[in-house]
Amino acid sequence: MPEKTLLHVAHIPVRWGDMDSYGHVNNTLYIQYLEEARVAWFESLGIAMNNVPQGPVVLQTLHTYLKPVVHPATVVIELRAGPVGNSSLVVEHRLSTLEDPATLYGEGHCKLVWIDHATDRSVPVPDDLRLVMGAGKRQ
Q1: What's this model's pTM, rounded to 2 decimal places?
Q2: pLDDT tens-digit readout, 6-35
Q3: Which residues touch 65 (CB under 8 Å, ≥6 apart)?
């Protein structure tokens, strides 16, 4: 199976306060790390997230926790292209650390729907983004 297109790599330092009473990063923080990585990716493409007429909204997030991350560490999140529909796209992710890059700490995906903020209705994923995702322009 061919490797999916690498879209973005984010490095996020783990803060001491990210840890929970079990001595590892709290499960809810992983979702925030993934959000930060997606926002940084969109910004790198020139896609603004605030005060814009259209943009992505999270429909579904799935993350499989494979190994706990412990402070001190820097989380490395690789975002890869998943399927692209008419108004939705899937961004897959893999999570490792700078300190232990060979270990996969977690993986999953986020399904996003492109919406018109004024109407709260889905609209087609922009062609520029479709091309970045390797899906080609709409027919």
Answers
A1: 0.93
A2: 999 999 999 999 999 999 999 999 999 999
A3: 27, 30, 105, 106
